[in-house]
């Protein structure tokens, strides 16, 4: 089960990184996107989505 969770997290991180790169964001405070945590990536994506009203095609970004 741990392998499945790790793969799901990796897929979600890659999805968010690709979305941010497509929006022209490559770093956050001199830190490359691939160095950020999943939570940091989600927060950054939500900021962009809120500001630009991006279409909602993410595979489950409901933050509880």
Walkthrough of the structure:
- This protein is mainly alpha-helical and 64 residues long.
- The protein has one domain.
- It is built from 2 helices and 2 strands, in the order αββα.
- It has helices at 2-22, 38-52, and strands spanning 27-28, 31-32.
- Strands 1-2 form a two-stranded antiparallel ribbon.
- Helix 1 (2-22) packs parallel to helix 2 (38-52).
- The longest helix has 21 residues, at 2-22.
- It is globular and about 35 Å long.
Short description:
The protein is 56% helix and 6% strand. The chain is mainly α and 64 residues long.
Based on Cα principal axes, name the global outline.
Answer: globular
Oligomer: single chain
Total of DSSP H or I helical runs spanning 4+ residues:
2
Strand/helix succession: HEEH
Class based on secondary structure composition and strand pairing: mainly alpha
The average pLDDT score comes to 85
Give the biggest beta sheet.
Answer: 2 strands, antiparallel
Strand content bin = 5-15%
Question: What's the Cα radius of gyration?
Answer: 12 Å
> End-to-end span in angstroms?
22 Å
